[in-house]
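Review form for a predicted model. The reviewer records the input and the model, then writes brief findings.
Reviewer: anonymous (R2)
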Amino acid sequence: MIKSSLFIHHYYLDDVIRSLHETGIMQITAITKEQTEQLENIQKVAMDPEAAICQEYETRLTTLIKILKQAQQKNGGIKALLNPELPVIQHIEDLTLEETFSYVEGVMTSMETEILTLDQHVTDIKEQQKQTTTYLHELKDYKEFDIKLSDIGTTELLSIQVGKTMDLSQLMNALQPIEEVAVFSKQIGKGKKKYWSVIVISHISHQKTVERTLSDHLYESELPILEVTPKEAIQTLLTQQKKNEKQLKSMQSQLQKLSKKHLFLLQGLREQIQIERIRKEIPSTFARTEETILIQGWVLEERTKEIKEKITEVTKDHVVFSFKKPSSNPDFPPTYMKTPAWAQSFRTLLELFATPKYNEVNPTVIMGIFFVLFFGVMLGDAGYGAIILLLSLFAYFRFKRFSPMIKNWSFMGIWLGLITTIVGLMTNSFFGDFISRFIYGNPEQPLYQATIAGIQFPVEPLKDPLTILTVALILGLIHLNVGIILGLYQAMKRHEYKQLLTERFCWIPLQIGGGLLIGDFILDWTISQPVFYMAIILVIVGIIQLFVSQGPVGFFGITGYVGDWLSYARLLALGLATSGMALAFNVVAGLLPDLIPYVGIILLPIVLVLAHLANLLLQALGAGVHSLRLQYVEFFNRFYEGGGHGFSPFQIKRIYTTVEKKR
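Model under review:
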């Protein structure tokens, strides 16, 4: 990564921005106020007024797009899943900003008013329908009353109020002292859900007294003001509701047609306007003198020649370049993670933890390989692996063109399923003992028998867990030592030689010497006396190196390393959990025909499918989480710090458009 500064003549500013945006060579960094104060006759560039115009168009286009997307007729269920709709790419001419504004305005003029008017009518009708539904709900409690709704309220002589009460007798007692009051009621519901709809008619002179009384005992109802009775009002509103529904369908149909005709065009126009807005906003991160513009940022070292050629060409050599290698502090350069296409999904796993710092080892590929391997060992069932493999293959070949994310994750799923299937076949597990129990008719019979390199396959974890534990600890030792080697490489790359010789390298003699001594004292190895003394010397050298770097607390580093190593026993534990639960489900399902005659035969496949599906989901989640833990805690603890930020060049990102260059 190279820290780059470009001094260009202001006349070429737009051409330089366009060139940088199209090539994506440079990550532009904002020049701070403090930097401009340190330089003579230089100041920040003001925001271009045309950026606000772009923002206005973008907002208008977003409003129209939102309306048309809501109106869009979409497939549902399985059909939508299997046939997602791809955007129709719009071919946009390479226009000037003024031409772009003119074109966008011309397009919007022909449709904006129509779309907004239809949307407002739809909104109004929906609100009206909502209000009508509320009225109908209230009116059903008053349909037995023969009173015009328009009479409710106050006249010169009477006050008529309606509402509902949970205790009619209490209401009547409260109104009893008031003269010239009439109460009409109708019971609604029964039991605990019982209440009364009430109409209270009083002389106008008692209005305030009645209102105070009713406020404590009556819940007011919101009714429409119509020159008809409640029963007639219900019919009127139902008729109006049907009419509104018809209008609503008609307007939504019109919006659907407009969506089908214009949505992708509007999305393309918005994308182009967004690109123009970004180009007009980016100069606010620059600084300027009376005649020149200063642009600063980061460029990949291998692309410095390219940026020189591009900018020199567009400025007709009116440019001065400055390149210098950064320091980690205070420059804090971005990290460019170069990752093979097949390992892109592993980047997400790494970024869930932390982005590497600049000049830090990028462990994406190695981490991904071990993640897949550990996942397969932990899940360890060929049946479950086959399901993951087949679903991932289907997703990859069917949906990869719709989304890079689906493409990357389904590709990783293929490897997860493949390794899980292989491990399952090696450990005699295909939906537990499904084949042996239900097809071979003998739960003790293995899937196959083979001898490879003197080893008898399959190896059954439930019968021979010690072998699987040994394999798990060997894998753990390999994993940890890969981390140690990466730590040594990183220390050498950073010229941290003291750390390399002490904190990093100490684990090499400690492991060799400690391993020989453990083999001699515990595992009954036969080692010669010179080898024995060499092992003691290696352990002492390793301890001295560790204590030089960490002091007495370094002793806990040794116990921590042993603890990290033993953590890999979870490979066995989760593998046993998968096999054990699958076996238990098979046993229970196999008992059903005997426990429940006739019905048990029908229940057997249902129980097997549901139980194994639940086991697959549960164990796959556990395998994923614990495999990640081994990467994040045990592996990264050997070398990885993180805390960086990714390289994000100033670059056009198009989804809905392609540009046709002017001839």
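Findings: The mean pLDDT is 89.
Further findings: The chain has 22 helices and 15 strands.
Recommendation: see findings above.
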